[in-house]
Amino acid sequence: MSVQQLARDARLASVSLQSVTNEQKNEALLRIKQVLEERKDDIFQANEKDKQLAEEQVKLGKLSGSLFKRLDICNGDKFETILSGVSDITKLPDPTKKVTMATKVDSDLSLYRVTVPVGVLLTIFEARPEVVVNISCLALKSGNAVILKGGKEATHTNAMLALVIQDALASLPESNPIPKTAVQIVETREDISALLDLDRYIDMVVPRGSNSLVKYIQNNTRIPVLGHADGICSVYLDKEGDITKAARIAVDAKTNYPAACNAAETLLVHQDLLKSDFFSKVGQALLDAQVTLKCDTSSQSYLTEKLGNSNEAYKSKIQPVEDGDYDTEFLDHIIAVKVVQDVNEAVEHINDHGSKHTDSIVTENATTADFFMTRVDAAGCYWNTSTRFADGFRYGFGAEVGVSTNKTHARGPVGLEGLVIYKYRAYGNGNIAADYGSGKKPFLHDAIAPSDYHL
Amino acid sequence: MSVQQLARDARLASVSLQSVTNEQKNEALLRIKQVLEERKDDIFQANEKDKQLAEEQVKLGKLSGSLFKRLDICNGDKFETILSGVSDITKLPDPTKKVTMATKVDSDLSLYRVTVPVGVLLTIFEARPEVVVNISCLALKSGNAVILKGGKEATHTNAMLALVIQDALASLPESNPIPKTAVQIVETREDISALLDLDRYIDMVVPRGSNSLVKYIQNNTRIPVLGHADGICSVYLDKEGDITKAARIAVDAKTNYPAACNAAETLLVHQDLLKSDFFSKVGQALLDAQVTLKCDTSSQSYLTEKLGNSNEAYKSKIQPVEDGDYDTEFLDHIIAVKVVQDVNEAVEHINDHGSKHTDSIVTENATTADFFMTRVDAAGCYWNTSTRFADGFRYGFGAEVGVSTNKTHARGPVGLEGLVIYKYRAYGNGNIAADYGSGKKPFLHDAIAPSDYHL
């Protein structure tokens, strides 16, 4: 089957999905969970095949140990976690069919703005095969059709998971209109470049993976991309910051999970904090947490004098900042440090070098905090809070589609709401535009109360 | 000044605009109105210069009369309309600073989702110079900086209008932080291609103009584009339609303003309507309104038999449909006609050939209407209503930024709400992620009542 045909099938499936009820969507999800359980052996066999092939690649030094580990869905409680993830999604509220505006345009013409699925999603991801299940269920719950493309290391697992999901959908009762083409998978890189051209059929691309994957996609499609390439988050320590909060937040933001996009990569320090022990306490907390500090001149000499000269282990971790460090997502126990004159310079630095993801200020001064949070252009602007909170589960969304650094549609951690848009539904009685306007019928434009909704 | 510098200035202006109050924005708009009035002579002089140059182009056959007419802002009440448009925008509610989510993540950690300006807009438009004023005011009211590029025929008028607006902004009292770089203008095509590359500084492109202009922009930038290239709207006459409504709606949708994007280009007719006089009545109404019908075989022979054979004028306007007619925006007194088996085929035709703009069904059957409105993938799905209602003013938005056929961010007629996005503001007390999770502190995720908002 051609990729064009597959994309067209996804579009047709998405039309069927428009009329599906929340109960039918949950029925499909629970059926998927059941069939995944029933076909556990098939899935594990496919996963073993991928792992065997990957093991050879690891031996040849062509695949990293951590990538190999992500490939595995058999060991520990990983498979159970995947299954419980499916039931969790059934418990979320239906993001579609919500009326967000209702206007009486005339006595016999009502206008409603109603949330609807975006349509067809294309998800491109790397090693973790559980994304097949997770994103398929998020897509179905929000009424979207989805085309999946996973990493080549997980080819067999991905294909089997997609097949099992399709079988589950095909086995739904006649009364449930969700077609199995609501979830489809492609395997080659050529398929992807063909799909990225099909803005006629595909409404949104949701990449999940490395910076380079996301950048490649952003540069090669006109379809809107929901996600983020970089996560360059900063913590700014203000002159009126609390020292305990400053140390705790800096350490947590950097070390709680350094590989996450919401980990801090830059520490901005008000110059006054170098006139006391304030910044040396924060520096020491970071050094004790095995963080390497890549410092500008003044912070390097301050920290060396306060900490480095008396301690070789510290000294080796107090390093000079290099070109590009303030634009680098280290994803490691490394943080770039810069001394700034004031909050204004901190904001400017972040707006110039940050990735509009999440930035935090540590201060006890509410006015300074508001200045920072208002002027920093980021999806998350935090006061005395670690950047690590930028996450759909922590925000209470129940599920996370991804974190977006876009300036349109959806921003920050994105839950199911990011997979819907709206349409206007007008209910008339033969109304024509020629009847309205100056000297003719006026528009009412009255809000319709929810109790009077009629759609 | 380089285009890069100009775009960077716009970005810096947009940061200043983040903290501006609604009163300050309205103060700026009223100041703009006042200075436009004061500098009316300068503006008319510039407009005369453009019109003189354009007149020569008209004589040489290089510019159409209608384009020349659009250029003129001196005659009639055009200038007054521009000025009253400015005061109208001051009366609209501020789309920013609205809290759309408020969650107590923990007793000492509050999370708010608050609407904020998108940032920097780039607007590219054609002959009408009033767009300079209109879009600048919409941008300012929504807290966005804007870079403008108009058509070359209106170069002098556009430049003068932008200069006057900048002068007005520069003359604001010290207390008003809106910088004059909030509105800037560029003049050359090279500037535009450079700006379309600057996704680092520009957040959204709002083209206003021809299909080819919009398509060019969509194909040449990674920046999100708000707008529509095509407006291929359809009216579907169902077998259970009311004949009076059918004729009125078909005629209004086609002829009320054929050059508009919300005019109908395709008429889909249930086959049963050819078994009676139903469709000949509709056809006659269209023919009487000087519409040419480009018909498929069955509708052509039906209409020819019923109307054409006895009337030469009718006959000449009943023509065979040609390749591509169902994908064409005629923008004229021409409509493509197709007979369909049922509502399902009508929906399929629209989803294949339409431009996701606005489509209408004429039927007295509520179930059929719901089927159509649910399954047609368009920004507007109408029941017994002319497609011509797809318009920001008719929807009651007070102003229209444009009509979007996008599937993300903003869809259909777009008011000021389409120029804002949101950010998350978190207010903590030194909260770190490491303190939460299984075996540690739980998340509350309680909604915060508006009366308890503290931000």
TrEMBL record, chains A, B:
Enzyme class at the top of the EC tree: oxidoreductase
This enzyme's EC code(s): 1.2.1.41
This protein's UniProt keywords: Amino-acid biosynthesis, NADP, Oxidoreductase, Proline biosynthesis
A cellular component annotation (GO) from this entry: cytosol
Superkingdom assignment: Eukaryota
Catalytic activity: L-glutamate 5-semialdehyde + phosphate + NADP(+) = L-glutamyl 5-phosphate + NADPH + H(+)
Gene3D superfamilies the UniProt entry points to: Aldehyde Dehydrogenase, Chain A, domain 1, Aldehyde Dehydrogenase, Chain A, domain 2
Family annotation (InterPro entries): Ald_DH/histidinol_DH, Ald_DH_C, Ald_DH_N, Aldehyde_DH_dom, G-glutamylP_reductase_CS, Glu-5-SA_DH, GPR_dom
GO biological process: L-proline biosynthetic process
Function: Catalyzes the NADPH dependent reduction of L-gamma-glutamyl 5-phosphate into L-glutamate 5-semialdehyde and phosphate. The product spontaneously undergoes cyclization to form 1-pyrroline-5-carboxylate.
NCBIfam families linked to this entry: PRK00197.1 (NF001221), proA (TIGR00407)
Family that this chain belongs to: Belongs to the gamma-glutamyl phosphate reductase family.
Protein name: glutamate-5-semialdehyde dehydrogenase
